[in-house]
């Protein structure tokens, strides 16, 4: 398991001295994500509302703490990288002399679409506890795009430029990329940024194309080797489960396209039999979707997005998307595999940690849940198992994953804080609810 | 009418489980029961989901608190923890899939072992509308139900056939058991609580019961 032995229950990085003041501050900044804020702006807002000394002290602590963690992570990562190669929970050893992981995207595409790029990064807030039923896979993304002025704001344009410079190489500074990505990745560069952040694509520009080629070839060799065995006795349970889940996945736009369901089935089946410790577990199918959608958006015009027929793409393009989605999903799952192994210890542990965290940051909510005999496992199990994908619209998940991928252990550790924030965000509704029967 | 019942206070609260293999239509049964329509975009259930409805059974208002569980084997260790204190259960298989029928014994063992001892279980052969693809006959399942002391219905979450009946029959049997004294609602983990109507009438359930006994005496 890749969970580090040292991982402890999360501790809040900053001690909040005046809760009421902080809450005021928080409410004044509730739109903080609307425009991919820079730190200095946030600080400016904060300074208006809070005692500057306190703010600066706090900010320094956070920054120090963060950079310490980054340092530590960087170190661990290097080691981990080697370990992963060795213990990679895969069945066969893959002959790859190259220690780094691969990958992708032709830059031609990314830059060409930059002109009509307009996206804001608002995390839409639902009025009530959200139920995800987004009718079209990118409806969110589309709405979102059309609702904004077509021209890039100066600030967005400059952010995009920063990304492009960074990605152009010759060696992309991953640390810098993480920093920049934390507050959202502009749509035109998101595919390549995700492939870099997940460790699929190497930082060195010259090696990207060859790495991509190799990994794609490798994936289709797996398909060739294993996919015919899906109806064999020892694999048929796995395949059957995938086969009954895919036709009922969301979003509908994807599920209704046979071409897409075939791709999802192959990705999941190959992953499952190469990771026998967990195998396919319901919910893992959801984790393919953001990658698939982000990678496909590289080839789609904005206006096509709503009713896009995936089968209209050239076969080769689809294969590339499939292989890239497989590898990036594998990377993600490497970090949370114990969520899906027997008895799902990763989830059990995280739900306990969430409980502990909430009991400290919002005792009232915690007590309320407790008094009404609502167990964290009852509602938070799915938050962990599906990374909140059933709770928020797809375009929000995609935005959230920008941040997750730029955080060390974003999908495991950082996700906890997001879950806690989720509870606190709806504290009023939760506290008003007296009937959980 | 449904709204009228929602507003109505209840005499009892029963905890119900819906269990069975993945893809047998557990969530669709629940949705059909509560919303009176078929849910055709039903994603698979992760962990547990909830539904509740107040029904009228022989003049008594019973609130069903229904725990709809995930069917996949990997979730079993988690879903098992939800069994405790269930008064009733719908055990669901798919009549077009023998595999889901073969798994019934395991589900049954779990339910009897982990829920309350006296749990009342109704076996539901779902997807009755797909008769052309049937792999399990009515007769066969009916025998299995008899041997294992289960009630039995074939249901269709698509058309709604027998869906309400399944929940109501199960609730009725529990009520009968309460009335005959076979089930004691006050025993811990019975999966039964007095509803707000009963509680409002007299603060303590014990006194409520004492009073109804007196009434009978008259």
TrEMBL record, chain A:
Positions with biased composition (Low complexity): 111-122
Biased composition of type Polar residues is found at 123-135
Give any GO molecular function from the UniProt entry. GTPase activator activity
Q: Which residues form the Rab-GAP TBC domain?
A: 184-408
Q: Name one Pfam family in it.
A: RabGAP-TBC
- Where is the sequence biased in composition, kind Basic and acidic residues? 68-87
Annotated region Disordered: the residues are 64-135
Q: Which UniProt keywords apply?
A: GTPase activation, Phosphoprotein
Which Gene3D superfamilies does this UniProt record tie to the protein?
Answer: putative rabgap domain of human tbc1 domain family member 14 like domains, Ypt/Rab-GAP domain of gyp1p, domain 1, Ypt/Rab-GAP domain of gyp1p, domain 3
Domain of life where this protein originates = Eukaryota
Q: What does this protein do?
A: May act as a GTPase-activating protein for Rab family protein(s).
Q: What is this protein called?
A: TB22A protein
Automatic annotation (TrEMBL), chain B:
Q: Does the keyword Transferase apply?
A: no
Topology in membrane: Lipid-anchor
Q: Name one GO cellular component term.
A: early endosome membrane
PROSITE patterns xrefs:
RAB, RAS
| Pfam families in UniProt | Ras
A single GO molecular-function term is:
G protein activity
Q: Which UniProt keywords apply?
A: Endosome, GTP-binding, Hydrolase, Lipoprotein, Magnesium, Membrane, Metal-binding, Methylation, Nucleotide-binding, Prenylation, Protein transport, Transport
Q: Which SMART domains match?
A: ARF, RAB, RAN, RAS, RHO
Reactions accelerated catalytically: GTP + H2O = GDP + phosphate + H(+)
Q: Which SUPFAM superfamilies match?
A: P-loop containing nucleoside triphosphate hydrolases
- Report the function annotation for this chain: The small GTPases Rab are key regulators of intracellular membrane trafficking, from the formation of transport vesicles to their fusion with membranes. Rabs cycle between an inactive GDP-bound form and an active GTP-bound form that is able to recruit to membranes different sets of downstream effectors directly responsible for vesicle formation, movement, tethering and fusion.
Q: What is this protein called?
A: Ras-related protein Rab-4
The organism is: Turnix velox
């Amino acid at each position: 398991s890749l969970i580090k032995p040292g991982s402890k229950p999360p501790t809040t990085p900053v001690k909040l001295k005046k809760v009421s003041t902080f809450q005021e501050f928080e409410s004044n900044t509730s739109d903080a994500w609307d425009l991919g804020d820079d730190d200095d702006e946030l600080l400016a807002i904060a300074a208006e509302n809070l005692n500057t000394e306190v703010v600066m002290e706090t900010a320094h602590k956070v920054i120090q703490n963060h950079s310490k963690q980054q340092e530590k992570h960087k170190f661990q990562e290097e080691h981990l990288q080697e370990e992963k190669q060795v213990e990679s929970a895969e069945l066969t050893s893959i002959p790859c002399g190259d220690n780094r992981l691969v990958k992708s995207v032709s830059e031609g595409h990314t830059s060409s679409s930059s002109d009509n790029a307009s996206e804001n990064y608002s995390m839409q807030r639902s009025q009530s506890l959200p139920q995800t039923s987004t009718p079209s896979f990118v409806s969110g993304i589309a709405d979102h795009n059309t609702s904004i002025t077509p021209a890039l704001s100066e600030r967005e344009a400059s952010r995009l430029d920063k990304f492009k410079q960074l990605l152009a190489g010759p060696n992309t500074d991953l640390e810098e990329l993480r920093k920049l990505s934390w507050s959202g990745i502009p749509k035109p560069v998101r595919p390549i940024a995700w492939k870099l952040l997940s460790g699929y694509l190497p930082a060195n520009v010259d090696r990207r194309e060859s790495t991509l080629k190799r990994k794609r070839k490798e994936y289709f060799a797996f398909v060739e080797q294993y996919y015919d065995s899906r109806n064999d006795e020892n694999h048929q349970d796995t395949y059957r489960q995938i086969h009954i889940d895919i036709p009922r996945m969301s979003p509908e736009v994807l599920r209704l396209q046979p071409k897409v369901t075939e791709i999802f089935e192959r990705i999941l089946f190959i992953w499952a039999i190469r990771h026998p410790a967990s195998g396919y577990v319901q919910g893992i199918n959801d984790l393919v979707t953001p990658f698939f959608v982000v990678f496909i958006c590289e080839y789609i015009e904005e206006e096509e997005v709503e009713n896009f027929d995936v089968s209209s793409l050239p076969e080769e393009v689809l294969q590339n998307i499939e292989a890239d989605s497989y590898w990036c999903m594998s990377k993600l799952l490497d970090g949370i595999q114990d969520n899906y192994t027997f008895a799902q210890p990763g989830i059990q542990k995280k739900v306990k940690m969430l409980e502990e965290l909430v009991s400290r940051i919002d005792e009232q909510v915690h007590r309320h849940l407790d008094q009404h005999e609502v167990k964290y496992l009852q509602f938070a199990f799915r938050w962990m198992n599906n990374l909140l994908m059933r709770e928020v619209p797809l375009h929000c998940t995609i935005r959230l994953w920008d941040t997750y991928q730029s955080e060390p252990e974003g999908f495991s550790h950082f996700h906890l804080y997001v879950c806690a924030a989720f509870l606190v965000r709806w504290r009023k509704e939760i506290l008003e609810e007296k009937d959980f029967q | 009418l449904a709204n009228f019942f929602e507003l109505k206070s209840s005499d009892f609260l029963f905890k119900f489980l819906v269990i069975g293999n993945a893809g047998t239509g557990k969530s669709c049964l629940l949705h059909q029961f509560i919303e009176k329509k078929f849910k055709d975009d039903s994603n698979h259930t992760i962990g547990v989901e909830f539904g509740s409805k107040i029904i009228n059974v022989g003049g008594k208002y019973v609130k069903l608190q229904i725990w709809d569980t995930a069917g996949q084997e990997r979730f079993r260790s988690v879903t098992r923890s939800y069994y405790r204190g269930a008064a009733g259960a719908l055990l669901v298989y798919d009549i077009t899939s023998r595999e889901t029928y073969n798994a019934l014994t395991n589900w049954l063992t779990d339910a009897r072992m982990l829920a309350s001892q006296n749990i009342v279980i109704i076996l539901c052969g779902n997807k009755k509308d797909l008769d052309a693809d049937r792999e399990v006959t009515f007769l066969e399942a009916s025998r299995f139900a008899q041997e294992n002391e289960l009630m039995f219905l074939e249901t269709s979450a698509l058309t709604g056939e027998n869906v309400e009946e399944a929940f109501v029959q199960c609730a009725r049997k529990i009520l009968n058991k309460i009335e005959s004294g076979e089930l004691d609602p006050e025993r811990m983990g019975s999966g039964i609580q007095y509803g707000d109507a009963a509680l409002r009438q007299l603060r303590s359930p014990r006194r409520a019961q004492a009073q109804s006994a007196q009434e009978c005496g008259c």
